[in-house]
Write a structure and sequence with these properties.
Helix content is 54%, strand content 11%. It contains nine helices and five strands. The chain binds cytidine-5'-diphosphate (CDP).
Length: 211
């Protein structure tokens, strides 16, 4: 059983995907971390995330332990991620790991939940359940702003809003696996929902759909 969860930045897809996985005892993969790790590695080596050779070398050198780095949560890593993620050869290198995770979840678990931008369209086009989680951009920016403040980081709301809009545009307008809802995905709009409500709505759908 594969559950694909896609959507734009700060839509609540990670929180939702993690909760679904924990509820069903499925494996969980945050595929954004893979792109963040590649972007972060390029920056760490003093390179430009838009430089194909640098990004490709970082993607090829990536290993699972790199995903545990807490610095991947930063907005600097997010911007670098969305730059390396626009490069088709980089995506091709990272595809196999994601497909293998979905096909053979670790520890023999009975299913996998993957979240990202192209899970329902490219990584797992045959997923049994596809959710597209979204919310108004101002609401998403307020959530990200609060998250940063809660972590004790400096954050200025108009800058967070602009950064989200820029990243949404880069993710949606790229030619390689753009952010788009799969035709057979159901949309979960979390604009007016808290995490419990989003989970109840999505889980109700999963139960009906997989009965
Ligand atoms: O947590 P947030 O939604 O802000 O971002 P993320 O899921 O960690 O993804 C960071 C960036 O990686 C995105 O802006 C995308 O450019 C890229 N990404 C992608 O292209 N494909 C995926 N399956 C996951 C992430």
């Amino acid at each position: 059983m594969i559950i694909a969860v896609d959507g734009p930045a700060a839509s609540g897809k990670g929180t939702l995907a993690r909760r679904i996985a924990s509820h069903l005892h499925y494996a969980y993969l945050d595929t954004g971390k893979i792109y963040r790790a590649v972007g972060h590695a390029v920056l760490g080596a003093g390179g430009d995330p838009e430089d194909l050779d640098a990004a490709l070398a970082a993607a090829r050198a990536l290993n699972a332990a790199d995903l545990a780095n807490s610095e991947l949560a930063s907005d600097i890593a997010a911007v670098a991620a969305s730059k390396v993620a626009a490069l088709e050869p980089v995506r091709a290198v990272l595809l196999g790991f994601q497909k293998d995770f979905a096909a053979s979840p670790p520890c023999g678990l009975g299913g996998a939940v993957l979240d990202g931008r192209d899970i329902g369209t490219v990584v797992c086009p045959d997923a049994e359940v596809k959710l597209f989680v979204t919310a108004d951009v101002e609401v998403r920016a307020r959530r990200r702003h609060k998250e940063l403040l809660d972590k004790g980081e400096a954050s200025i709301y108009p800058r967070v809003l602009k950064a989200l809009k820029d990243r949404d545009a880069r993710d949606s307008n790229r030619s390689a696996a753009p952010l788009i809802a799969a035709a057979d995905a159901i949309v979960v709009d979390t604009t007016a929902m808290d995490p419990d409500e989003a989970f109840a709505s999505a889980f109700g759908y999963i139960q009906k759909h997989t009965d």
